[in-house]
Structure formats: structure tokens, C-alpha cells
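Hi X.,

You mentioned you wanted examples for the new student's onboarding notes, showing what a folding record looks like when two proteins sit in one file. Here is a clean example. The first protein comes first, with its sequence line followed by its C-alpha cells.
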Amino acid sequence: MKKVLLKTESLCKSFSNGGTLQHVLKNVNLELYQGDFTVIMGASGAGKSTLLYALSGMDTPSLGTITFGEETISDLSPDGLALFRRNHCGFVFQQIYLIEGMSVMDNVLAAGLLVNKDKKALVKRAGELFAAVGIDEETRKKFASQISGGEAQRAGIVRALINHPEILFADEPTGALNSKTGLDVLDTLTMFNEQGQNVVMVTHDMRSARRGNRILYLKDGMILGECNLGRYVSGDKARHETLSSFLTEMGW
């Protein structure tokens, strides 16, 4: 049986919109498991990003609980949530948010030094990660404005992984990239997952979704269905057909 990493019970999130209460998440009960590449899909406005932000401690639920191991993170103070994110989570966004006035390497080290003050160990860790994603030493010295979008997103993944997070959260990580560079980023995420990194990704893109072994479909703030695809194998036509059939059944 897989180890449960994170669990929600009766998770709800509501916002006030012009005096009207808008219910974005409605009684979501969910378990995330060790070793999974979990993909969250759904139509625009279904609550995908809201769920990801709640799971990662970037936002707090209106009702319900979120537990990580033995810790109820939904009860934490803002400072406690910041510490939880720093120590246990990595983040990759559609917008990459590298700091323009710093080199690619220094962007990564700045994130690492928040947790680990051993700069020598961080440089070694960063070098290993950069090599794994195909970013050479010359590119690591460049400013963010001097590298391509694909290189920047792969550097963003390195930054997200520098502190050995238990879970890597990715919100539409290929949304701002062209087809080729998006594929490179998906290959990178898949590679790290195969090495044991837990990944939770929000996407509206079927090509990206195929990388997951577990697909959750949200509709109107609730989990409408789940599809288990098994481990990703390139060129697996049956995988594509299974996911396509599932999404059609969900009304995607």
C-alpha cells in the first residue's frame, strides 16, 4: 500500500465576490501518495489552482482540514505555513519569476540559502540538478533575461528542487512555452518523478496530463472522477486513448 503524503478532509474554500459568497472548493476529500505524479484537470473555474494553493499551504481553506504526515497544516499561522512551504514544498509556475538582476545560479542559491546555510553543499546540489536538466555552466552564469523560456523554466525546476522538497507543485508549467520547449519541461518533470520526486501538477493540456499516473478531474469545486494510467511510457497509444475516453466521460 502506498504511503499517504498529504490528506484533505471536507476541504472547502469560499470567496466573497461583490457581497456574494462564491464556493470554489466543496467538501474535497483527497489523499496524495508517495511516488505519484498526480495531475489535476478540469474546465476553467473548476477550482484547480485553488486546490493546488490550498494543498501547498499557499492559501488557507475556509473549512475542513489538510494534514501532512502528523501535522495539520490547515491550522498553521501564516508564519507556520511559510515554514511548511519552505521546508517541504517546491513550486513551478506558468510565469517563472526568476530575479532579473541575478544570475541563473544565484537565483537557485538564493532559494537554497533560506533553508541550508552550507553554500558549498548547495552549489554541489545545484550543479547536479543543472546537469540533470541540461543547463551547462555557461548558461548558469547568465542573467534570467539572457536565456530562453525553456531554459528559464528548467532553471525554475532546479530552484524548486534545491531544498529536497517532499512535493513539487506545478501550476500550468508549460502554459507559456512553445511545443518543443514545453516537451523538454515535461521530460524534466517526468525524469525527476521516475527518480522518486512526488509531483502534483495542474494543467488543461492533454499532452501534459498524459505524464501523470493519476488524473483527478474537478468540476464545480468537487472531484468528479479519477483515472489511473500507470507509469508514463513514451508513445503509448493506449494511454492516450484511456485518458481521452476518461475526459470525454467527465465532459471535458
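Then the second protein repeats the pattern, sequence line and then C-alpha cells:
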Amino acid sequence: MTFMPSFWVVLRPAFRHLVRQPMGALSELRVLDLSRVLAGPWASQTLGDLGAEVIKIERIQGGDDTRAWGPPWVDDELQLDSNRSAYFAAANRNKKSVAVDFTKEEGRELILKLVEKSDIVIENFKVGGLAQYGLDYETLNAINPRLIYCSITGFGQTGPYADRPGYDFLIQGLGGLMSITGRPDNEPGGGPIKVGVALTDILTGLYGTIGILSAINHRNKTGEGQHIDMALLDVQVACLANQAMNYLTSGQEPIRLGNAHPNIVPYEDFPTRDGRIIVTVGNESQFRNFCECLGVSEWPSDVRFSTNATRITYRTELIELISQIMVRRSSSDWLRRLKECGVPCGPINGVADVFRDPQVISRKLKRECRLPGSKNKSFEFLANPIRLSKTPVEYKKPPPHLGEDTREILKNLLGLDDKALDLLVEKKVVGMQM
């Protein structure tokens, strides 16, 4: 039988047109997304971008909370009754919206039938919140033992805080991130500051995605599904990274340093004649180049500044000396000089500046999508940063209107006819875009 590989190599090109090519890396997976707001939807959007079919289950009235978090609106900034805010659009492309009231028995039965045909369930209800409807992991696992069930909560399924609601801002404070973000108390504007986006939610969504794909790989080997317990607090603490390790290693509480780095000097923003720029010196070679550019080539020989460790000790003195020099020239002048010297540096861009940046443009981080039936012909959105050479990310569907796909999914996937669907609408078991 040793001839088979070479035989197939010869014939494969002729049969290639008969083989179904996957639409994406995860095109064989179906996700039932019962989550709302950001962490769960971010995970399901990532899976959808990678080719999975994502069915977003929403309340009949209002749908996902973030649909109302506007203006601005995707459809029309003046259309105040729109159900697609820009916030909602950030986490809900490549999904099909099915509006179902699963507090009603008929609605619950629809969800159970969808579970039978799904690979993954994502939910972010309070601990035990879905058990009263028979939509908890134990119940669904009995129906579909291959099911991957990802629960996302503020504090996890166990522990003294398990019953508490969790929000990103709250977790940033409780989880220590705000204690190391912002300027020191003794400086103007000092005090704890949250990150400008709901970073804990996003990181939880990404960790959730990793957990789901790990569970899928396990299922491929064993045939069994499993429950994934994701907590915003767990993720936030894990992402303290080097700051947490600094504390665990030394016993010293990290402090807020503004834009400075606790382990590297100089690594922060500096004033120029017309603004501020960022300089990130990561090794001794870069520090020597930086000193040459500043015109102070003697600094690397100064015992105070000769190594990164000594520069941390004499941080305040060094930063003041650097600032006195850099304030003499414009930002553009320094950026040009520093780049010529091989010193990592950059501007502090506003969001509008970001999308004018030639690298951002080259990488196509802003995309455009048609909106059928909208007053606007299209809308702009952020690209997924994952670049796969064989199964690239696809943008197949804009963020859906509430109930936009209810009829399609229940008809094609569950086999309901128009009469049955119309009756469910009349009973307010399901909702559809009219």
C-alpha cells in the first residue's frame, strides 16, 4: 500500500473542485451565544470572525443591553430608536440574532433544540441564573455531552463573591489595575485611573476564547465536552503580570508611576517644545544611542546611569535631566532624530490620528461593511488583528438588528414552518425584525 500517497498526490488536483473548502478555521462549529454586553460577545465575535456560525440569543424586548448604549448609532446618528449602537457594533459582527423568550416553556424548548445542534454555549448570567430555566451546564450536558459550555461572571462559580454582579470598572479597582494606573498622589492629577476601554471585559473574552478552543481540542480527542468557568476578577489578577510578580518577589507594593515603567528607565513620555512623545529604551545599546542623540555621550559611564538597575535607583534625577534637554526641540524633530539613532520612540496619537497612521492604513485595521436597508450605505469598523495565511478572517455579516435572523434559524435549522413561526410571534415567544 505504499503507493497510495504518491497516487493521491497525482489525483488530488483533479478532485480539488469536488472538495468543500472551509469558509474559515472554525467553520465546522456552531456557537449559541446567550451572553450580552462585552466579555461574552467579544469571545463569540472572535469565534465568528474565525468562521464559526454564531447564533446570538436575545430578549424580545430590547435585546442585548448595549444596543441602547448610544448615540452614536450605526444606522443614523439622528435615529434615536435605532437598536444598533456603535458600542453594540464593536462586539457583534458575524452573528445571527434570534429573539427568544426562554422564560416561557415554548421558548425554552426552542433553546434546547438549538443546543442539540450546537457545539458551544456562551453565557454570562449570574451564578445559577440559568438553572431555573433548565439551561444550566448539567442539564444541557445531559442533552448534548459534546457541548462546550463557557460561563463568564464577575467572580466565578465558587468563592464568597460568587453571587455578586461584576462590572469591568468595579473589577479594575478590586483587581488592582487602578492602583498602578495613573499618576502618583503627590503629582497634579494624581490618583487611581481606570483604563480608557473595558479592558478586563475584553481580556476575559479573549481568555474565554482560548479556553473554548482548548476544550474543542480535548473534545476532538475524547468526544467529551466540558464546563469553562471564566471570572473577570481571575483574569484581571492574572493580567497584573510583572507588577504582581514584582510584589510577590519583593513584598513591596507597586505604586502608580504615571507613564513610567517600574522595571525599565527611561521608558515613558517626555515633554517637547510643542507636546510630548514616548521614548522606550529597552537595553543598554539603546540607552547609549539615546545619550548620543541627546548630546550627553558621557552618561553611560556615569555610575548613576551605567545600568538599568542604577537608572531605576536614580530615576527621578535622570528623568529630570532628560526632560530639560528634550523640551528644547519640537516633537517632530525629536522623533526624526531618535529614529535615525535607532531609539524606539513614537507620538501620543488621538484616535483620529491612529486611523491616519500609514502603518494602520497599510495593515487595513479599519474596514468597511455594507448595511442593507440602512440610510447609510456602509459603516466603518475595526478589523480583527489575527492574520491567518490559509484560513483568513472573514467579515460576512454586519452587526444584526434584533431578531433579524429568527425566522431563518428556526425555519432552516429546527424545521419550523411559517404557520408555527407566526404563532410563536403571536404568543410573544419569539421576536422577528419586521
